[in-house]
Amino acid sequence: MNSQSSGQPRSGATARPSRRPRNVPGVVAAAARVAGRAIQRPLPEFMTRDERSVSAWVGIGSNLDDPERQVRRAFVALAELPDTELRVQSPLYRTAPMGPPDQPDYINAVAELDTGLEADALLAQLQAIEKRAGRLRETRWGPRVLDLDLLTYGRECISRPGLKVPHPGIAERNFVLLPLLSVAPDLEIPGLGPVRQLAAGIDREGVVRLE
Ligand code: A4P
Ligand code: MG
Q1: Residue 96: phi, psi to the nearest 5?
Q2: What is the pLDDT of residue 48?
Q3: pLDDT in tens, 97-117
Q4: For the CA of 179, the nearest ligand
Q5: Averaged pLDDT, 28-36
Q6: Is 122 helix (H, G, I), strand (E, B) or coil?
Q7: Mean pLDDT score, 130-156
Q8: Of the bound ligands, which one is closest to the alpha carbon of residue 176?
Q9: Which residues contact 8 (CB under 8 A, 6 or more apart)?
Q10: Is 94 a catalytic residue?
Q11: Which side of the chain, N or C, has fewer Cβ within a 10 Å radius?
Q12: What secondary structure letter does DSSP report for 99?
């Protein structure tokens, strides 16, 4: 997949504030889509914090039922979430399974969303996408059609039943860090440090970039 092709969200992230202006229907457009590309316009003075959005990174994984197709479809589903824009999609990676070894390799990728959804609402939307893809929750770390993990949500650290952000284990997982490194090396993982630093010592064995 050429993630930089016309009509696709750009691949490659730049450092930016975690909260950014978003489009507010019925008011002056803060962003407009032209040929599939987001054009940012100045945020009107009167907008409140609630009308601003958050940069959220999502980890995508699949190792069942044509995983490459599952991941590509997940990008499309993420782009269609309410009050959300898909800003960045990483290349796809083939990765050796973490967990039970008697399962197929995974295809992994990451995506950056610019979302007006609260973290819990976003997680619910991610789980709904997993469900629509046919995800069954069986073995922990077992094979799955689609896994969508909320890796980061702005600069927030959240720890409550059902939602932990940054996603636990992010700093040890080559299948998360290497896709992140390819598009957002300067992304700061709250409480842990920049992706570039976290990825520096990571084992790259079993991870192959596909595109
Ligand atoms: N949950 C809490 N915080 C989050 C969050 N930030 N994002 C809760 C997503 N979910 C979060 O997740 C279990 C519960 O975690 C959910 O109910 C949710 O409320 P799950 O998706 O149902 O179960 P799981 O994915 O089997 O468990 P877990 O511990 O989340 O596994 P991981 O960490 O997602 O790892 N090997 C390779 N190569 N590539 C992979 O992508 N993925 C896994 C799963 C195992 N091995 C892998 C890969
Ligand atoms: Mg998961």
Answers
A1: -70, 145
A2: 43
A3: 998 888 999 999 999 999 999
A4: 1
A5: 31
A6: helix
A7: 87
A8: 1
A9: 2, 36, 89
A10: no
A11: C
A12: S
Question: Ligand 1: which residues within 6 Å by Cβ?
Answer: 61, 95-99, 106, 108, 123, 137, 140-141, 147, 149-150, 162-165, 167, 169, 175
Q: Which SS3 state, helix, strand or coil, does residue 139 take?
A: coil
Mean of per-residue pLDDT scores for the chain: 82
Å from CA of 36 to ligand 1 middle: 31
Instruction: Please give the single-letter amino acid code of residue 59.
Output: G
**Is 155 one of the annotated active-site residues of the chain?**
no
What pLDDT sits at residue 143? 81
Determine the Cα–Cα distance for residues 153 and 39; give it in Å rounded to an integer: 22
Q: What's the average model confidence in pLDDT over 127-156?
A: 88
147 tagged catalytic: yes
How many A from CA of 193 to the centre of ligand 1?
Answer: 21
Based on the number of CB atoms within 10 Å of its own CB, is 114 exposed (0-12), middle (13-18) or buried (19 or more)?
A: buried
Q: Shortest CA distance to 41 belongs to which of 55, 59, 58, 27? A: 27
Give the strand pairing for 84-89 and 147-153. unpaired
| All domains of the chain in start order, with CATH | 27-38+50-209 (3.30.70.560)
Q: Which two tokens stand for residue 164?
A: 């932990």
pLDDT of residue 142: 72
Could you give the CA distance from residue 115 to residue 131 in angstroms, rounded to a whole number?
A: 21
**55 in Cβ contact with 18 (< 8 Å):** yes
